[in-house]
Design goal:
Layout lengths: L2 E8 L4 H11 L2 E10 L6 H16 L1 H6 E8 L2 H5 L25 H16 L3 E3 L15 H15 L4 E3 L7 H23 L11 E2 L2 E2 L5 H20 L1
Helix pairs in contact: 1-7, 2-7, 5-6, 7-8
Length: 238
């Protein structure tokens, strides 16, 4: 049921954030999007964002009516102070602290803080992010506890009642594909396959069954495995 609230979706141009955008468009009267250029190695995701947004608008007239302004924010300072596989051309590997070097310290904390600042100015009272504890690489800033603590801190520090929504928090990648299908049908599934970008290496040469990507980085492996499970379940159901 459509709520009278308004939402700001953290939208990268990838599978998860596109699914979250569709989820928000089904629930909120006005939805805006925010993206971040943080010097990411897979900057191709910024290039595909306009086409993905246009594709989302075309799926349902009511989505087009509800989807408002898109905001791009320069957070290249993250790339300048980070030394990670997402901001430098280094091999993806595990670190001594047990986290993969694709973890960008403070990234989601800063993203949410900047998003809350913009939401304050724009009069938007819900922030929507694609953080997930089920299919993730062990990133501590994707945990539910982190998001709950951040919501408290933001509202205390800004004297607001902003709500942080993470619709993917407790579902896996197969269920993320299913959520996309439930929200926008196969039109949204195909848009995600053909237009969005998830690959950490920025590879966009060959369109596979699950989309573009190198097929070997952690993001591609999760996306491919989830799509195979989604497709197999759909085939068995039919």
């Amino acid at each position: 049921m459509l709520q009278p609230d308004t939402a700001l979706v953290l939208f990268s141009g990838g599978q998860d954030s596109t699914t979250c955008l569709a989820w928000a468009l089904e629930r909120y009267a006005r939805v805006e999007t925010i993206g971040f250029d943080y010097g990411q190695r897979h900057a191709i995701e910024l290039t595909v964002r306009p086409a993905v947004l246009a594709g989302v608008r075309a799926i349902k007239p009511e989505w087009d009516a509800r989807l408002g302004e898109d905001h791009m924010v320069d957070l290249s300072v993250i790339g300048r102070i980070s030394d990670t596989a997402l901001t430098s051309n280094v091999e993806i590997a595990m670190q001594e602290n047990g986290l993969p070097n694709t973890f960008v310290p403070g990234r989601n904390l800063l993203f949410m803080t900047v998003a809350a600042t913009l939401a304050y100015r724009r009069g938007l009272n819900v922030l929507v992010g694609g953080m997930c504890e089920t299919d993730f690489s062990g990133y501590p800033d994707c945990r539910d506890d982190t998001m709950k603590a951040l919501q408290v801190a933001l509202n205390l520090g800004m004297a607001t009642r902003v709500k942080l929504e993470t619709p993917l928090m407790w579902i896996d990648k197969k269920q993320t594909w299913q959520l996309a299908q439930a929200a926008g049908g196969m039109a949204l599934v195909d848009l995600i396959r053909e237009q969005t970008h998830t690959c950490y290496l920025g590879e966009r040469g060959t369109l596979r069954a699950w989309g573009y990507g190198c097929g070997t980085c952690p993001a591609c492996e999760l996306r491919a495995r989830g799509y195979a499970q989604f497709a197999a379940e759909g085939a068995s159901a039919s």
